[in-house]
Amino acid sequence: xxxxxxxxxxxxxxxxxxxxxxxxREFVIESERVINPEMVFTDYVKFQLTQNKVSLVETxxxxxxIDVSFDIRGNKWEKNGETKYFVNLEAWKIEHLQADEPxxxxxxxxxxxxxxxxxVPAGTPPPIVSEDDDELPF
Length: 138
Prior knowledge:
138 residues, mainly beta, CATH 2.40.50.140
């Protein structure tokens, strides 16, 4: 499942050679979630690039607006009878955005039936849906 999020590039780490066969690089973006005009939340999202993708972020400068396509990767690690779980946001594509484009996280393959409202002015609250608008048969 692929996801996209846009935001301002805040930080880029150096390439880390973890083992003979594995290298990675991390970067952080600042993204805003607008719930309504009075509720704006800032998220700081760390991504990782691995193997042949570590150079993807080199063409961008800190402060630029970017769009990141990524997958969620979960790992299990066991040692001495202890189990830990890790989640990484694995970036696989980065594109430059114009400064005035919104930073709205999207789930591009989730198959949701959420309506897309084009030509709606920024800051317009979402429509209110009542229980009478429910089209489900149960």
